[in-house]
Amino acid sequence: MAGVPLSEKSLIEGVRRSVGRAGRSALRLGIGDDCAVLRLPMGHEALITTDFSLEGVHFRRNWHGPEVVGHRCLTRGLSDIAAMGGEPLAAFLSLALPAKLSQKWVHRFLDGLLGLAKQFGVPLAGGDTARSPGGILADIVVMGSVPKGRAVLRSGARVGDAIYVTGSLGGSAAAIDRLRTGKRASARDYSQHFRPTPRVEVGRFLRDRGWASAMIDVSDGLSTDLAHICEESGVGAEVEAGLIPLAAVGKQRRSVDLDDALHGGDDYELLFTSRGRVPATIAGVAVTKIGRVVRGRKMLLLRAGRRSELKARGWQHFRGS
Ligand code: ADP
Ligand code: MG
Fold it and tell me: Ligand 2 centroid to 167 CA: how many Å?
């Protein structure tokens, strides 16, 4: 029935069926009533995050397949839970869909989203569905939990802490650079863009050990997200350009440009500060020291023995492109 638009009722029924009974630990009641009912673990606090995925802003239908849009949509929410050191409990999806959109697109979108949900044991517990007069709008809400008082905030960085990042940076921006030139970019060669992995295990591990004094996920770009930590903590930062782990992309696995690693967004790595020593790998993910927290409010970039100011120039999505 590809090409036939979907009624709201059959869409919800479809979602309900595909959600099945997977990963329902915290969920007492999921799709089908006025509200979902969740059980919060004893001694925990709730974490709630909400993120839009808007056609033309966060994705383009000619660049991103429906599975990719679904996968990236949930990644945004899971990554925010990871950045607090939390455990994701349930996801909620509000969709506004153009009348002309095919059933097939919606099913493939859900496949991508639910595939990632299953990987992290997070049930899709509800949402809303409406007609969009324009493009596709998807809003993901993820609810999580964290032991009382233990959420890792942006405001905990102190002078002398080291700055770390997980994985590598710039891979997502490099894919956009390529797509903008009209070339194709495959999910295999640019996996960080098309199939990013939210660092939930790393975040949980860091929180459990008490190793992260402040943490954020790299969604707007290193420079902008580090600026958020600096602002909230009332500190400055020094980053060594030569230490930043550059993503390897394309068939040749070439390293991305430093600018993409510094300012490119949507990598969904964790950026955190720590007072102690941190292992080089956590939960199979590389962890790299890239600088330190300093006095003042400025961010500085050390490059080839020279010191310059690092300005927050994070990713502006696809606006105006
Ligand atoms: P209400 O009128 O109470 O908002 P709806 O008809 O919108 O009820 O939704 C019925 C059920 O289907 C609810 O449990 C809701 O959470 C769920 N639901 C609706 N849209 C979605 C969606 N896009 N994804 C997941 N669940 C959905
Ligand atoms: Mg509704």
Answer: 38
